[in-house]
Structures are given as structure tokens and as C-alpha cells.
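Model it.
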Amino acid sequence: LDAAPFAAIAAGRKTVELRVNDAKRRAVEIGDTVLFQHRTDTTRTLLVRITDILRAPDFEALVKQYPPARLGVDAVGAAALVLRLNRAYGVAEQEECGCVGLGFALLRAS
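Modeled.
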């Protein structure tokens, strides 16, 4: 994870991670634990337990399913988040795989 989302999760301000629903994400189930690593300092990690999973055809539809606070943003930030995700993943990848929101509870930050 980049520094800003990592910090937001560690502080309890972000409880959902949005991704393209590729094979790796399709294997995730409620109750699973996931270990997120900081992008530049891989010794920093966040262990979370998956509490809910939502799917949508694209990030715009997925973001609308969540209160902005769960995404670690405000209403204006939610629109900017969609733009960032669209740049990172692209429309073709979203159309092929769909998108997924992984809701979680933080178990440990280190």
C-alpha cells in the first residue's frame, strides 16, 4: 500500500480496500486474514480480517456502495479516488474482471 492509505488503515480511518476483482481477489472470503505491506518500507505491515465483500462492474459503481468514511476519504475525495483507480487499473481491466471492495477489521499494525 502507498503511504497515505497505509496510514489511514493503521489509524482506523479506512476500513475498505478497493481492487480489480482478479483471480487473487476472487479467492478472498469473509473471515480470511490479509497482510498488507507498505509499498516503500515492506517491514511495515497491517494484518486485517475480511468482514465484508462487495462487487461491482466498475470503481464508480463500487465507490457509490460505501460511505466515504469507510474509504478513508470525504465526498469530494471519493470522486478523486475513482479517477485514481481508473488510471491505475484502466477500463479494460475493470470490464474484464469487475471490481471488489474488501471490508476489513484491523487486527495488528507493525
